[in-house]
Design goal:
- There is one protein chain.
- The chain is mainly α and 110 residues long.
- It has one domain.
- The chain is 75% helix and 0% strand.
- It contains four helices and no strands.
Length: 110
């Protein structure tokens, strides 16, 4: 394995871990449901995507073949996370889940 690929894998793992941590902190610390929804769907998706990309690069550079399963997991994650977040948000809007005063925007009241 080349030195460049080791640095690239390490960088992607650090970036992925940082984004996943930021997403988890957002889920725990943000005040209401709609703002908490952004943590796992935005930052954590990007973090897991970076971790999976580092896994693909690692297994490809060690001559163990292209990690098709990692690529499929990443594609599935990127396709399902926005759809599930949209469904959760629409269900919360229909149920009338309250927001805090600092939450901006009320698209369901137009």
């Amino acid at each position: 394995m080349s030195l460049f690929s080791e640095y690239l894998i390490s960088g992607l793992l650090l970036i992925g871990g940082a984004f996943t941590l930021i997403g988890a902190l957002g889920l725990a610390r943000l005040p209401d449901f709609f703002t908490r929804l952004h943590g796992p769907t935005k930052a954590t998706t990007l973090g897991v995507g970076a971790i999976m990309l580092s896994s693909v690069i690692y297994f490809s550079s060690t001559d163990q073949g292209l990690g098709i399963s990692e690529i499929l997991i990443t594609v599935f994650l990127f396709l399902t996370a926005p759809v599930s977040a949209n469904m959760l948000a629409k269900a919360a809007m229909h149920l009338g889940v309250r927001t805090t005063d600092s939450t901006e925007g009320n698209p369901w009241e137009q």
